[in-house]
Amino acid sequence: MIIGIGVDLVDVARFAASMERTPGLRARLFTAAEQAEPVPSLAARFAAKEAVAKALGAPPGLSHQDAEVRRDPDGRPSLSVGGRAGEVAAALGVRTWHVSLSHDGGFALAYVIAEG
Predict the structure, then answer these.
(1) Cα–Cα distance between 19 and 23 in angstroms, integer?
(2) Handedness of CA 107, 80, 97, 28 (dihedral sign)
(3) Residue-level pLDDT at 61
(4) Of 87, 69, 75, nearest to 8 (Cα)?
(5) Is 72 a known ligand-binding residue?
(6) DSSP 38
(7) Which of 10, 37, 82, 98 could form a disulfide with 43 if both were Cys (CB 3.0 to 4.6 A apart)?
(8) List of residues 6+ apart from 27 with CB closer than 8 A
(9) pLDDT averaged over 10-residue windows placed end to end, the chain, 116 residues
(10) Residues of 2-25 as b/e, b for ≥16 C-beta within 10 angstroms?
(11) pLDDT number for residue 26
(12) Which structural domain, as residue segments, surrounds residue 68?
């Protein structure tokens, strides 16, 4: 059963400019494992984190660090959700996360499904 769906779109150039203007932003938004990714991939990961929040109904107290986008051995992205987002997901009955990422034409897109 689908518990929630979230989607987010990020302008990669605008995101890159924000990252340059605010040096601590990379560490605040991304886990240590994510931080080495290139900017277009970071923009897609940021979109995924926003999409996770939307799939959960945007409850208060979430952190961007609560969701981490990982790369499975076959190259597909997957989500690891913990912290406050993990608590909310567990309360809602989320057992599986599905994520799709894309970046092209100056935009990054993420689509997230929370399944119970």
Answers:
(1) 6
(2) negative
(3) 93
(4) 69
(5) no
(6) -
(7) 10
(8) 35
(9) 98 97 95 95 98 96 96 95 97 98 96 98
(10) ebbebbbebebeebeeebeeeeeb
(11) 95
(12) 2-115
Beta-carbon contacts of residue 74 (< 8 Å; ≥ 6 apart): none
What are the tokens at 97? 């996360």
Structure token digits, residue 19: 């990252």
Closest to 56 (Cα-Cα) out of 23, 80, 91, 25? 91
The pair of three-digit structure tokens given for residue 37, joined into one six-digit string: 């990714």
The 3 state secondary structure assigned to 58-96 is CCCCCCHHHEEEEECCCCCEEEEECHHHHHHHHHHCCCE
Q: Which two tokens stand for residue 13?
A: 């150039």
Identify the pLDDT of residue 23. 86
- The domain tally of the chain equals 1
Task: Please report the pLDDT score of residue 105 as a whole number.
Answer: 94
Q: Is 50 annotated as a binding residue?
A: yes
CATH assignment at residue 41: 3.90.470.20
